[in-house]
Design a protein that fits this description.
12 helices, 9 strands, about 50% helix, globular, binds ligand C2E, binds calcium ion
Length: about 280
Amino acid sequence: AKNLGRNRYSYFTLYMQEAAQTRMRLTSDLRTALSHEQLFVVYQPIVELASGDIHKAEALVRWQHPTRGLVSPADFIPIAEETGLIVDIGQFVFEEAAKTVKIWRELYHPQFQISINKSPVQFYDMHENHANWFDYLASLDMPGQSITIEITEGLLMDASNNIIDKLLAFRDAGMQVSLDDFGTGYSSLSYLKKFDIDYLKIDQSFVRNLTAESEDFALCEAIIVMAHKLNIKVIAEGVETISQRDLLLAAGCDYAQGFLFSRPVKSDEFEKLLKAVR
Ligand code: C2E
Ligand code: CA
Ligand code: CA
Ligand code: CA
């Protein structure tokens, strides 16, 4: 038994060492990913449930690694956050999305918007300057109204003035604010009163096993009623089936996003979707 224990221990350390090495390699690879143009942006439609129309798009970053293939954001965003690389990556995604929204506004809809994920680390970073975003939009002659920023509950829990000021600056510039992954964080509802939120995104964990009798359905209904009373629109994430869509529609949900409508796709693919519904 003693031997087995020791073996287990050594397998465990081996595993930990490998995981640490992979992480170190990914970290150094990520530093060059931006300059080597391995990062790109895909777009997923956010659909108005009642009409089926495309309401806006969410921009999501992708990393085409030269040997590993496509690396999931779930694997590299945490590394980007720890190392601070998320600031440069975030700027890249923003600039790509801003150029894209300009084209789509000209071609398809003058009020089209793109949603961009903004990590709490980007708000905390001293060198990250939101003027960068405003200047960039101005250089494209694009209004703030063309952008929605997606933040998570964790950010709002930190009610420091600095964060509030930054959020207000985005709002003052005309951008909308969306609360991502709702229901998974350290939920305290008091921040919904303190901050002016435009959209609340129900996390896909509530949608995954949705049936009419499920507790998840009761939760979705309650979230939607509460949000509407606060004048907040609701987007359901991870909608994969017609039955999920129908339940959400019955519960009064405004918008949905998920593989049922489309996976995240490159901009030219997205333009086909926009053309199809025009
Ligand atoms: P998120 O912001 O909650 O994005 C939604 C995720 O759900 C995306 O994963 C999307 O591909 C996935 N998804 C969409 N519809 C469905 C569906 O019907 N079923 C399932 N199972 N999944 C669906 P993705 O692109 O892998 O991104 C994962 C997370 O990485 C994002 O979660 C976000 O937190 C982060 N992320 C992605 N791009 C960026 C970025 O540019 N900046 C920052 N800061 N974070 C990003
Ligand atoms: Ca998001
Ligand atoms: Ca989400
Ligand atoms: Ca509001």
